[in-house]
Every structure is written in structure tokens, then in C-alpha cells.
Amino acid sequence: MTAAITIVGLGPGSIHDLTLAAQTLFSQAAQQQQTVYFRTLIHPTVESLQQDLPTLRIESFDRLYDESQDWNTLYQQIAQEVCTLATQQPVIYAVPGHPLIGETSVQNLLQMARERQLSTQIISGLSFIEPVCSLLELDPFEAGAQIFDATNLAALSGDEAGGKIIPTVPLLVVQVYNRRLASAVKLALSEFYPDEWPVKLVRAAGINQEESVLELPLYELDRNTFANHLSTLYVPPLDELTALRLPETLRYITMRLRRDPDGCPWDRQQTHESLTRYVIEETYEVVEALEEQNMDKLAEELGDLLLQVYLHAEVARQDEEFTIGDVYEQINAKLIRRHPHVFGNIEVQNAGQVVQNWEEIKRQERANAGTDLAEESILDRVPQATPALMVAQEYQKRVAKVGFEFNHLDEVYAKLNEELLELQQAKTPEEQHEELGDLLFIASKLGRFLKIDAEEALRAANRKFKRRFQAMEELARQQQRALHSYTISEWSDLWMQAKNAAPDAPLI
């Protein structure tokens, strides 16, 4: 049975690369005076066909290029017109290269044909990839090359491209059809590759008299008019230690550090237990950068914290416990599962409902994991490595939900005074230790009533005290005196001078 739509590939450009099946189809169409619809006539094979088959009736969709607002609209329009024609008579639709390689119009057409129950047939053609690889002497399969459409790449932001481009494998960016697109491609690739990185712009591959290769640094990609509709950009791979913006590079480095025998002796000795202190230290350094609102420092400290994640994952991989892939899987699955209002069909009205859903989902997760929720304390699952003031306020928040809470702020102040009196009356070091803890616990309770994060309040006080004392040190240097030479009275005077120099520091 004759297909309603026959899609045929024209090859990369030379008439000699046209397949025998395609030549036979065009000859039959010429004999039967059947019109062949070309996506575009701007292709070298079309001119050769017109010379070899002067009776071949040719139509194209070039008129739509000026009428369409964007490429997606263009390819949709072409597919719609071909399907409409196919409802009246069999249609031959010809496209450059291979119909299924770099041809969005064909993908749209196949989908529409299925929806309209129109039969299709594809007559393969040599794609542009084969002659490009021949010029480059590149085996894309052995090299694991990526192939990216220039228009799609140019539409990505730097962050989006970061999740798709792998700079450590060869990259082919196809259909770099003009200088403007070359500029957009250059900007996207500059996220990963050095400006001086050598690239090759291949033009008219497979067309004997026209094919050529221009070698140039990446930053010059748009500084010429070499690119046209038959251009492909080849970007050679970066070395693993050069691709510094790539997550995979961090994985490689951590593996290399712990790899015997050419790794680092110190890194090879580390265990989950020995690395624990560094996780805590790096976490607090991230917090410090946030408090200072120092974005350059924050980027660095987040990297240090991320290193701890990769080091623990590498220790686990070598001990056959888990891999970094398991880490990604756990957090990605959790985020999807706990955001059904984003990735599912749950609707929420505000952030409060999001929190309620989150807690219920967490509760269900614990039940699915075999936790007996009836036996579970509301104070369970608060990490004890968390700063003590934060643990105290978290405990207080949880018990308040079930009614264990003061009714008024005055009651909190009264309890605070009571704990202070008990501390003053404590006689032994053990009693003083206990009563000081009680006092701090109630102080954090006061923070909750005042809607103040007790940990952050204390950290802010520490920062202000540091600035105040550093101002005192500077005054002492100006007076050319050692700190230990000051009397109590002189310390008081010095403190007041420092207070004037740093008025935001707390009194002592």
C-alpha cells in the first residue's frame, strides 16, 4: 500500500550521496508528474536534481521562513500543511540529510500523522554527521561525542546548559547557520570552556568543492561570516582537571585523592568518623559567609561543604556502602515526593499548607519505613549535633503544639528570674552546671515568645563583641600599650571608647 506521506532524505549536499532508493523515488515522481515538497530549496542537492530531472515538479516551504515567528512555529506549520496535502493525495516530503537527524519538522510531522491516522514511510539519507566526522577523522561512538543543535543550545541559560553539556567529551554543535547564532553558541559554551579553547567550524561537509574547516579559538567564533546553513562546530574535550565548572570533575578529584597508590596519603586515611568534624566546620563557615553577606566567600565555602559530601560518598563507594549516585537519587526522589503541589496534582493556597503537607508526607515516610508512630516521641528525630540553642527551641516548638506552653510572656520572664535565682543559690559545680543549662533553656524559650532565633541572636552578639574588642585592641596599639597592662578602671574607659567606635557592640 502506498504511504500517505513519504519522507525522503537528501543527504548532506552532494548528488552522489543521494541513496538509490531516493533516486528511484524522484525518478518515478518525475515520470508521474507528482509534486515533491521540499522543506527548503537552499540545499545543493536540489539544484543537481533539477538539472538531472528537469521534469520534476518542485514546491518548497521557504515562504514560511519569513512568515513564522520562531522555529517551532515554522516546523509546526510545515507539518500541518504536509498532513493537509496528504488527506487529498500521497505526498513526498524531502528534507536535507537524514529525515530523523536534526529534523524537527519531521518529528512534528510523524506525530501529526499518527494523530490523523496517516500512513508514513521514511527513505533514509546520509546525514551531515558522517562527512563531518570524516573531515575531523572522528569516531563519535568511540569518543562518546555529544551532538547538540545550535538553536537549542543557544536557547539555554548558563545554568541549564550546565546540566546538559559534558565538556570532557567531544561536542558537535550542528546547524550553526549564521553569525548571530554562532555568537549565542559561543556565549553558552563560554560557561564551560576557556575563551582560548581551540574549536573547528566545519562547513559544507560532503560537498567536494565547498567543504572546509576553519580552526579558531572559541572567542572568535562569531568574528567572521564563515558560518552558514551547512556549518557544524566541533569542540574537542577538556581534560578532567581543566573542566573546573563540572560536577563530574569533583567526583574524579575525590576518587583520585583516595586512589591507591597515586592518591593523597592523608585523604586515603580518612573515614566517616574522622571527617565528621570537617562537615561541622565547613557548615559553620557557610553560615558565617551568609551572615557576612559575602557572596564570593559563600561560593567558596559552599564548595568546601560540597567536597565533604563527595568525600563521604567516595569513602562509602570504596567500602561498598553506597555511591554519589545514591546521594543524588535520595535527595531528588525526596524533593519530588515532598512537593506534590509542584510535581503532582495537589493544590495548595499558601506556604502554611506546604508545611502541613511536608510534615504529613514525612510522617507517612516514617510509617512506610516501619516506624511505630504510636510509640514515637514528638521529640524524636531532632539531630543532637545541632547547636544546643536550636535544639532547645525545636523541642519547645514541638511540645507547644500539644499544649505544653506558657500562656503569657510575663510567665516566661518570671521563670527566667526563677532560674537566675536558682543559679545564684547553687553551691556545687554540678548544681551550677545544671542551673546554668536551665537558665539558657528558658532564655531560648523567651526567644520563641519574642519570635527571635536564639542561636542567631547569640551569634550576632558574638560578632558584635568581636568587633568591640578588636576596636579596643586597635586603641591599645595606638597607645603603644600591652593589653595585660590595663587596670580594671582603664579597661572600662577603653571599653567606652571602643563602644563609641563600634556602637553596635553589646555592653558587658
Write the layout of secondary structure elements.
Blueprint (H helix, E strand, L loop, with lengths): L4 E5 L10 H12 L4 E3 L5 H9 L5 E3 L2 H5 L3 H16 L4 E5 L8 H12 L4 E4 L5 H8 L3 H4 L2 E4 H5 L3 H5 L8 E4 L4 H11 L8 E6 L8 E6 L13 E5 L11 H12 L6 H5 L2 H21 L2 H24 L5 H14 L2 H4 L7 H18 L19 H14 L7 H17 L3 H21 L4 H25 L9 H14 L7
Parallel strand pairs: 1-4, 1-5, 2-3, 2-4, 6-7
Antiparallel strand pairs: 7-10, 8-9, 8-10
Strand content: 5-15%
Quaternary = single chain
Write down the CATH class of the largest domain. Alpha Beta
Strand ordering within the main sheet:
3-2-4-1-5
Features:
single chain; 508 residues; Cobalt-precorrin-4 Transmethylase, domain 1; Methyltransferase, Cobalt-precorrin-4 Transmethylase, Domain 2; 5-stranded parallel sheet; 5-stranded mixed sheet; 10 strands; 54% helix; Tetrapyrrole_Mease/MazG_pred; nucleoside triphosphate diphosphatase activity; NTP-PPase_MazG-like_N
Describe this structure in words.
It is elongated, with a radius of gyration of 35 Å. The mean pLDDT is 89. With 508 residues, the protein is an alpha/beta fold. A 5-stranded parallel beta sheet has the order 3-2-4-1-5, with helices on both faces. The protein contains 22 helices and 10 strands. Helix 4 crosses helix 5 and helix 11 (247-258) crosses helix 14 (295-318). The termini are far apart. It has helices spanning 20-31, 44-52, 63-67, 71-86, 104-115, 129-136, 140-143, 150-154, 158-162, 179-189, 247-258, 265-269, 272-292, 295-318, 324-337, 340-343, 351-368, 388-401, 409-425, 429-449, 454-478, 488-501, and strands spanning 5-9, 36-38, 58-60, 91-95, 120-123, 146-149, 171-174, 198-203, 212-217, 231-235. It has 5 domains: 5-126, Cobalt-precorrin-4 Transmethylase, domain 1; 130-235, 2-Layer Sandwich (Methyltransferase, Cobalt-precorrin-4 Transmethylase, Domain 2), CATH 3.30.950; 247-337, Helix Hairpins (Orthogonal Bundle); 388-452, Helix Hairpins (Orthogonal Bundle), CATH 1.10.287.1080; 456-501, no CATH class.
